[in-house]
From TrEMBL:
Keywords: Membrane, Transmembrane, Transmembrane helix. Residues 124-145 are annotated as: Disordered. It comes from Boletus reticuloceps. InterPro entries: MCP1. The keyword Transmembrane applies. The chain crosses the membrane at residues 21-47, 67-86, 98-117. This is Mitochondrial adapter protein MCP1 transmembrane domain-containing protein. One of its GO terms (biological process) is lipid homeostasis.
Length: 145
């Protein structure tokens, strides 16, 4: 056995533990986050709004969002990608084109966009880029003064 193989096996074992340890945090968040739209089909928009407000109490605080969602998500993605890079292609547990892998790679694209449009962009105080929206923004902001 090559000495490099032992360190690679140790590294992939540690990365697997990081990936598995972060998964329950992400699963809990997804359960809370997706329950409102799912319950809208059963109880309508009022039930959906109530569940959404309760869910936001769970994860939209500065501490919880940072340490119970974003940190585990970053750990999960980084350890998963590092594991994929360190594992020889002949020993990888699944192909990069498997359904699970494709879902994960597409999430790498869409989750940051979703986070930006729903959490970061709404807090931006810059005027809108569209001239018609800018006119309304100026009018509404001048009324607040």
């Amino acid at each position: 056995m090559n000495p490099g193989d032992h360190s690679r096996n140790t590294s992939t074992s540690i990365l697997t533990k990081f990936t598995r340890a972060s998964a329950p945090f992400i699963s809990t968040f997804l359960l809370v986050h997706l329950s409102a739209p799912l319950l809208a089909n059963v109880g309508g928009s009022s039930l959906s709004s109530n569940v959404m407000l309760l869910g936001r109490e769970y994860y939209q605080t500065p501490f919880r969002e940072k340490y119970l969602l974003l940190t585990p998500l970053a750990i999960h993605v980084a350890s998963g990608l590092a594991h994929r890079l360190l594992t020889p292609s002949s020993k990888q547990p699944r192909k990069a084109t498997s359904t699970l892998s494709l879902a994960a790679y597409s999430a790498l694209i869409f989750v940051p966009i979703h986070f930006f449009t729903h959490r970061l962009a709404p807090t931006n105080t810059a005027p809108p880029s569209s001239p018609s929206d800018r006119r309304n923004w100026t009018t509404s902001s001048s009324r607040r003064v």
